[in-house]
Specification:
By secondary structure, the chain is α/β, with parallel strands linked by helices. The chain has helices spanning 9-15, 34-41, 77-90, 107-111, 116-125, 156-159, 205-324; strands at 23-27, 46-50, 64-70, 91-102, 130-136, 143-145, 152-154, 167-173. The strands form two sheets. It has a six-stranded mixed β-sheet with strand order 2-1-3-4-8-5, with helices on both faces. A hairpin with a 6-residue loop joins strand 6 (143-145) and strand 7 (152-154). The longest helix has 120 residues, at 205-324. The protein starts with 8 loop residues before the first helix and ends in a 6-residue tail after the last helix.
Length: 330
């Protein structure tokens, strides 16, 4: 028995958009093949096809960016653990691996209460930080081209006839962030809703319970987010009302400031007018003061002249009275 399984071409097509400029290790059952050629045409820097004889890779530590490998159904969990540790060893920082694992390996764990997908994730998360698992489904439906368009239509109700998935395709990395980008549809099991019966081959009882628990968790989270949204709306309305009140207060204060500024301007104009009138009065007072001083000096001169005239009159009267009128009669 080969120590690995060959990968179908769709797995290479899934990885094709992620390989440009990358060094890829293709762990396969034979060298070459259409898958490796697809990767080269997609722009991979190098594609190394390696056929192992035991769980060991002849590649130096951190020697490649991407590892493709199909692990067989035979063997034990210890052997699979050795393979996973070896794959992780050869991956460089930021690299990832694409693994194809048979679902039959995890059927016993599914019967014990854990879903096959959960069991697969538990195994891989023991070696890698981030894991995305895609169910591999063989479509047994009918497809046709829509007339007048380039769209391909698929009868989804017939795809359920393909039965349960036989393999998982897992993308694993030890990085905090996933270096791949998968469309949401690839992460949805295409056959999980084929039957609501827990005994159907596509759905295990534990897996169905896990999905139901996830739905309940998402519903609870949705209700919590709705409450947070309502609280945020109420908070926004409260803040809006407060902002409106503050705007009205600011408008009233602005009017008061404008009124005070006008009053200050009017008071300044009145003070300037009073100052001008005061200066005019001071000038007029100075003029009148000078005029009063001049009049006082003139008055003093006239009083001196008057006193001189009075003395002269007295003297003349005395002289006239003594010479022509001895009796003193006039």
């Amino acid at each position: 028995m080969p120590v690995v399984e060959s990968l179908p071409v769709p797995v290479y097509l899934l990885v094709e958009p992620m390989v440009p400029g990358k060094k890829v290790l293709d762990v396969t059952t034979r060298v070459g093949g259409p898958g490796a050629e697809c990767l080269r045409r997609a722009g991979a820097a190098d594609v190394i096809s390696f056929v192992p004889e035991r769980p060991s890779l002849a590649v130096p530590d951190a020697g490649v960016d991407i590892v493709l490998c199909g692990l067989p159904a035979v063997g034990s969990d210890e052997e699979r653990g050795i393979w996973l540790a070896e794959i992780r060893r050869v991956l460089c920082s930021g690299g990832f691996c694409v693994l194809r694992l048979p679902t039959v390996v995890f059927r016993d764990r599914a019967q014990a209460g854990a879903g096959t997908r959960t069991a697969c994730a538990d195994l891989l998360l023991g070696h890698f930080a981030n894991v995305d698992i895609v169910e591999e489904t063989q479509f047994g439906g009918v497809s046709f081209h829509v007339p007048g368009t380039e769209d391909l239509a698929v009868n989804e109700s017939l795809t359920r006839l393909s039965g349960a998935s036989s393999h998982f395709v897992a993308l694993c990395t030890d990085c905090a962030e996933r270096p791949w980008n998968l469309s949401e549809s690839l992460l949805v099991p295409t056959d999980a809703g084929a039957s609501a019966d827990a005994g159907a081959p596509g759905v295990a009882a534990g897996e169905l319970a896990a999905w139901q628990g996830e739905v309940a968790r998402l519903e609870a989270r949705s209700a919590e987010l709705s409450r947070e949204r309502d609280g945020a709306r109420e908070g926004a309305m409260t803040l809006r009302d407060r902002a409106d009140r503050l705007e009205r207060t600011v408008a009233a204060l602005r009017k008061d400031v404008e009124r005070f500024l006008r009053q200050i301007s009017d008071d300044a104009a009145a003070r300037e007018l009073i100052t001008m009138e005061r200066d005019d009065l001071r000038r007029n007072l100075a003029v009148v003061t000078r005029q009063v001083a001049d009049a006082s000096r003139e008055l003093e001169k006239r009083q001196v002249a008057l006193r001189t005239l009075e003395k002269e009159v007295v003297r003349l009267r005395a002289a006239r009275g003594g010479a022509g009128n001895p009796s003193g009669k006039t």
